[in-house]
């Protein structure tokens, strides 16, 4: 109780705004996680689709061959999906080489905000300014809005950065999404390799399709069924 | 509200384990750069041998061939017609009486 009384009005305001900010941050991160989860599930379904035909045609009949072929197919799909982001990243690298060769300046500061970086076309605030910070229960936290450091303005010397930075950003994020998809498919393939060729007791349980077929027809019709187990579920 | 709280809880979890997730993703991405360049090199070799840049896998070709054979191809095309339930009500003594005895019998 004494702790609450010791808080000034300003402290309370800071505390509430910090709390709201933290909650918002965690919720946003939670939703980003949900998005990542959905992308991974969608990509994992592709793993089943790409292995369907070879299992249906019984070209692959054991776990080891499934793993090996799954890896090959997964890597091939990864490379195909990576072509565009890698092309964009290569474009950024090519622009850097051209810029360096033309201007003899190989130390281009691409994030600089004064002359030759991408920061020249951004709003920038001076977060390094010590005057904007306050002490709060021994912690040094930001107390007021920092002064404006840069307003967007065009610099001819920064033309290379204007191309390189967006290309790096888009290509990099795109490549990471493709990598994430590759991870999802890898895990799904590992799981499928374990389940598709390893029968479990579930397959002969009272509620299994195999058993119901046997009950209805008196024989095992699944032996003649060319359709493979569900690889997408 | 429940979804909001769930996202909030998961958000805390993701923030806590994010360094590990990012490290894992970056390591995987670096490893995959090797795969990318190796596959591209293989593609060029294949291309200059007169094949496609990404030639079909032997297993896929074999699977396509088997699945295009008669029993597999027909399996999906010819779906057996399901027997229809009988909808005609067989005449009974009551039905005949209700019709006023106009039965042809």
Question: What's the quick description here?
Answer:
The complex is a heterodimer of chains A (233) and B (105). Chain A is mainly alpha-helical and 233 residues long. Helices cover 60% and strands 6% of the residues of chain A.
Q: What is the total domain count of chain A?
A: 2
Uncertain regions spanning at least 5 consecutive residues of chain A: 218-226
What is the 3D form of chain A? flat
Beta-strand content bin of chain B:
under 5%
- Which stretches of chain B are low in confidence, meaning pLDDT under 50 for 5 or more residues running? 99-105
The CA-CA distance between the termini of chain A, in Å, is 55 Å
Largest sheet report of chain A: 2 strands, antiparallel
Strand content of chain A: 5-15%
Global structural class of chain A = mainly alpha
Q: Give the mean pLDDT of chain A.
A: 83
Count of discrete alpha- or pi-helical segments spanning 4 or more residues of chain A: 5
- Based on CA inertia axes, which overall geometry of chain B fits? flat
What string, H for helix and E for strand, traces the elements of chain A in order? HHHEEEEHH
What is the first-to-last residue Cα distance of chain B?
Answer: 73 Å
Give the chain pair forming the largest contact, with residue counts.
A-B, 36 and 32 residues
Helix content of chain A: 55-70%
Q: Give the total of beta strands of chain A.
A: 4
Largest sheet of chain B: none
Mean pLDDT across residues of chain B: 78
Sheet with the most strands: spatial strand order of chain A: 1-4
Description:
- The complex is a heterodimer of chains A (233) and B (105).
- Chain A is mainly alpha-helical and 233 residues long.
- Chain A has two domains: 43-117 and 161-233; 123-154, no CATH class.
- Chain A is built from five helices and four strands; from the N terminus they run αααββββαα.
- Chain A has helices spanning 2-5, 9-56, 63-103, 159-196, 209-217; strands spanning 124-125, 133-136, 139-142, 148-150.
- In chain A, β2 and β3 form a beta hairpin.
- In chain A, α2 (9-56) packs across α3, α2 crosses α4 and α3 packs antiparallel against α4 (159-196).
- Mean pLDDT of chain A is 83; it is low at 218-226.
- Chain B has a domain at 9-75.
- Chain B is 68% helix and 0% strand.
- Chain B contains four helices and no strands.
